[in-house]
Every structure is written in C-alpha cells, then in structure tokens.
C-alpha cells in the first residue's frame, strides 16, 4: 500500500507547538506537507485573500494568509492530489454550533470539503482556572498527546472505513491529558446549541463576552449527553461528523411569499 499524503494546516501559525506536535505524529505514517499561516490567524473564519505571499519552510510552506487561503493554495497549487487535509492542533476548543463559522481551524477543513477532499479539524480544550491563565498552559508537545493520538487514529482509518461517505469533515476536540495517565475515550457527538454571548455598552465601547467558558470551568453546563461540549468537559475526545454545504429545504411559507412579490 502506498503512503498516504496529507496537507497540514492550522490557524495558530506554522510555528505553534500544537502544529509541530501534529506534524510529527502524522509524519510517522504519511507524507505530510505543511501549508500553514505564517502568523496567528485565529478566529478569522473563512476569510479569503486574493494574493498570499508564500515562503518555503522546513515543514513545507508558510503563507501570509488565512487558513482557508492555505487549503485553496495547497490543493490547487502547492501540493495537489493529497488524500486528506488535516487542520490543527488548535490551542483552545472549537466546540458548539456557533463557533464553527468563526474558527479558522474548522474553516480550513470546510474549504477542503468543496474540493471533495476529506478533512479533519483538531483542537485542544485547555481549561481555565487555577494558578495560570489558559493561554499559559499547553506549551509542550506532550500536552497535545490526546489530540495527536486521535488525529493519528482517524487519519489512518476514517477514510478506509467509509466515514467520509456520510460526512464531509470531522471536527475533533480533545481534552488535556489526564494527570493519572489514563487515555481518553472517544465519543461521536453533535455540536452543542448552547449560546451565551453577551454585550455591554459603556462610554462608546461595546464589550463582547462569551460566558460559556466560565460555565465550562465549573462544569455547570446544560448541554446534554451526545454534544461536543459535554464530551470534552467530561474528559472524552469529541468527534463530530459534519457536512459543509448549507442545506436547503422546501419552504412552503417562503414559496407563498415569493409568489406574491409583484402583487
């Protein structure tokens, strides 16, 4: 069997710890080409550029562009004919339906779906609280081992198992490693619909806040079993099989309204 080929991208930037951990893990069994942003492009969604300067990198290519740029540039010009696109590992979870469109990590996988190339987006849930802020955690490759284990397993087996016959991409969120060394279980999930964004106006500035993260710290979340957020908070690896194109359905009320448009 020939070696599989993977286009690897992310949104934290090509020099991020999670990206290198994933590159090393996937390279043990696949031909991996990095096509990733030169700098941090977190939360840019599917923002696109018209021109993106490319620099050669020891892992492949660094682009002065977005994750979606990287997918298009890779599949069209830099490493066409790959078997799969893998995006991550993002430092910070990408869970909940409302997050999917914002995430650069997830958007790179969505972009691949329009090329009919299977894709996996990977993120690491880094809980807040304690003596250190969440962004000061997950600084070593070992901190990403649950995510790299899931990525390795799914990249090896998902395509041949027929997983992508029923979905376009997988959104994977892994917990930080258990201090006791117990590996996390994997659960197939669906995106939580919990939404708790707030906005406060004060002296010409609107402060936007996502209160979901505080809820997750305490475990006080209403998300039912089977959701991505519930799985990750309880220490499991969440795998959500998702489709990229927007769905459309017959809509009788809108049909009737359109018919009377010129009346």
Automatic annotation (TrEMBL):
Cell compartment(s), UniProt: Cytoplasm
InterPro entries the record matches: SurE, SurE-like_Pase/nucleotidase, SurE-like_sf
Keyword set, alphabetical order: Cytoplasm, Hydrolase, Metal-binding, Nucleotide-binding
Entry keyword Iron-sulfur: no
Pfam families noted in UniProt: SurE
Gene3D superfamilies in the cross-refs: Survival protein SurE-like phosphatase/nucleotidase
Sites where the protein binds a divalent metal cation: 11-12, 42, 90
Chemical reaction(s) catalysed: a ribonucleoside 5'-phosphate + H2O = a ribonucleoside + phosphate
GO CC field: cytoplasm
Record has Nucleotide-binding as a keyword: yes
Family: Belongs to the SurE nucleotidase family.
Function noted in UniProt: Nucleotidase that shows phosphatase activity on nucleoside 5'-monophosphates.
Protein name: 5'-nucleotidase SurE
Organism: Haloferax mediterranei (strain ATCC 33500 / DSM 1411 / JCM 8866 / NBRC 14739 / NCIMB 2177 / R-4)
